[in-house]
Amino acid sequence: MTLEKIGMAAFEECYKLEKIKIPPKVTKVEKHTFKYCRSLKQVEHYHRIVEIGASAFYNCSRLKLFHIPKRVTQIDISAFAFCHSYEEAEIPDTISALPNSPFESCVSLKSVKIPEHIESIPVNCFKGCRDLEDVNLPSGLKEIGAGAFRNCYSFDPPALPDGLKEINPSAFRFCDKIIQISLPGSITDIPVSAFGDCTNLQKIEFAAVKNVDNYAFSNCPNLREILIQNIEERIGIAAFQN
Predict the structure, then answer these.
(1) Three-state SS at 211
(2) From start to end of 56-208, where are the E strands?
(3) Which among 216, 192, 213, 214 has a CA at the least distance from the CA of 204?
(4) Measured between alpha carbons, how far is 136 from 81 in angstroms, rounded to an integer?
(5) φ and ψ of 81, to 5 deg
(6) How many alpha carbons fall within 13 Å on the CB side of residue 66?
(7) What distance in Å separates the CA atoms of residue 47 and residue 63, rounded to the nearest whole number?
(8) Could you tell me the sign of the dihedral formed by the alpha carbons of 115, 117, 121, 122, in that order?
(9) 3-state secondary structure 37-88
(10) Cβ-proximal residues to 129 (8 Å cutoff; 6+ apart), any chain
(11) pTM of the complete model
């Protein structure tokens, strides 16, 4: 008889667990299955997995590599959050949408490949990924969630796609590597602290927008050039302070 299911939180807080082999008939890593397995370094025989549950590998701080299987159709909230050694991820084309905080505080994460059909980079998706350098922004991207790239100190985003409609609060806050940002004409509002504390930001360029909200570009001490065609309604409190 072959094991077909590993239950929710089955190995949660197994602090000394270093290696696990997933039985061939197991197709889902359930919610919290390996949460806080801080010594887990190696997961084997997981290529039949189709679903990764919420916080499944949360704070597996020594897990360096986990190649998300190409057949996975769902990744749930905080699946790999706080995996401090996790270095790279490729989201398979079978994923239709990303959850909130899937890679939050993966401080060693350097590279992520996202399918071109993904329309939203969700809330806190890469927040605190301080070594993140290489992430493609899909051509179909419509929204960047609140805090999506906050505290990504090494990340300088590629050109924002023309169809992008919404940037949410603190989306790029504390992204120290950004020097220049050009917003597509599809953006109508720049929210609270969207680019706040980007200490090396020197140039902003955008077309007509309705609002530049409070603290949108505050604490950007190297800002030298602002090219704005038109602001229709409002510049908020301390929008360009310091």
Answers:
(1) strand
(2) 74-75, 88-90, 111-113, 120-121, 134-135, 143-144, 166-167, 180-183, 189-190, 203-206
(3) 216
(4) 20
(5) -60, 140
(6) 30
(7) 17
(8) negative
(9) CCCCCEEECCCCCCEECCCCCCCCCCCCCCCCCCCCCEECCCCCCCCCCCCE
(10) 103, 104, 105, 106, 107, 109, 149, 151, 152, 155
(11) 0.95
Burial 33-55 (b: 16+ CB within 10 A, else e): bbbbbbebeebeebeebebbbbb
Question: What tokens were used for 5?
Answer: 């299911």
Which amino acid is located at 63 in the chain?
L
Q: How many beta carbons lie within 10 A of that of residue 215, not counting itself?
A: 23
Two tokens at 100?
Answer: 């909130």
Kindly give, in sequence order, each residue whose CB lies less than 8 Å from that of residue 75, ignoring residues fewer than 6 positions away.
Answer: 51, 52, 68, 91, 95, 98, 99, 102
The confidence score (pLDDT) of residue 175 equals: 98
Single-letter amino acid code for the residue at 179:
I
pLDDT along the chain (242 residues), means of 10: 88 97 94 98 93 98 95 97 98 97 98 98 98 96 98 95 95 97 92 97 89 96 90 89 88
Give the whole-angstrom CA distance, residue 171 versus residue 174.
Answer: 9
Give the helix/strand (H/E) hosting 235.
Answer: strand 231-235
Per-residue pLDDT tens for 175-212? Answer: 999 999 999 989 999 999 999 999 999 999 987 788 99
Q: pLDDT of 138-165, one tens digit each?
A: 999 999 999 999 999 999 999 999 999 9
